[in-house]
Design a protein that fits this description.
Blueprint lengths: L7 H26 L6 H7 L4 H7 L3 H5 L1 H16 L6 H13 L13 H10 L1 H26 L8 H23 L5 H10 L25
Length: 222
């Protein structure tokens, strides 16, 4: 056993602090000055480390800025694993997203200081948006594995897990985009509910029942 405060545990805590410090300075500098006006060297200098140390933790300034939201995919997936097995997969995904937004053990994601501003910037900055998309894809791949386990299927052979996650993640993305455009930081849960409601089966049907536009069937009783 290592003496208290020494060895791998201490190194791990130090590494975590360094990563968090870099991420926080990247977040603050970019939101204060804009993505294009901040360099990796400036982020490293603000955190009192060199460029090489920055590169040990992050591949780009965009990745460092977005580190504040990377853990949210993990939280959604943790909530998804905890949903009752009897729930239909898309229902489970929807409720996992709402559980994440209402997590009593963490500050609501959409109300954290400046997260709204970060996502507004991501909508406007292509490289930041691309980095955020990469984070989402990583989380969705894990969601597919979780849904596949719930269904007891191989996701390489059965498309249902991938389709479920694509639909659920698409609803969440649409809700987030509407939330950012709407300018109401507290309204994200409302947008999420509306977006998932839009996946209900009745939206796949014609608004008005009636014969097909070019039907030649007359008096059919089928």
């Amino acid at each position: 056993m290592n003496p208290k405060g020494k060895g791998p545990d201490r190194r791990g805590r130090k590494a975590r602090r360094t990563r968090d410090t870099l991420a926080q300075h990247a977040f603050d500098l970019v939101l204060d000055r804009g993505l294009k006006s901040v360099t990796v060297e400036e982020i490293a200098q603000a955190a009192d480390v060199d460029r090489r140390t920055f590169s040990r933790y992050f591949p780009s300034k965009e990745a460092a800025v977005l580190d504040a939201v990377r853990g949210d995919g993990d939280r959604i997936n943790r909530a998804l694993r905890e949903r009752p097995v009897a729930e239909p997969p898309l229902t489970a995904y929807r409720r996992a997203v709402l559980d994440w937004l209402g997590d009593p053990e963490a500050e609501p994601w959409h109300l954290r200081p400046r997260i709204f501003d970060l996502l507004v910037m991501a909508e406007e900055e292509p490289t930041l948006y691309a980095a955020y998309h990469h984070i989402r894809v990583d989380a969705q791949e894990e969601s597919v594995r979780i849904v596949a386990e719930r269904l007891g299927v191989d996701p390489q052979q059965d498309l249902r897990p991938a389709v479920t996650v694509a639909a659920g993640a698409g609803a969440l993305l649409a809700a987030q985009a509407a939330w950012v455009r709407g300018g109401r930081p507290a309204a994200l849960p409302e947008f999420v509910v509306h977006a998932f409601d839009a996946l209900s089966a009745h939206l796949l049907e014609s608004p008005q029942a009636g014969p097909a536009p070019h039907s030649t069937t007359q008096g059919s009783t089928a």
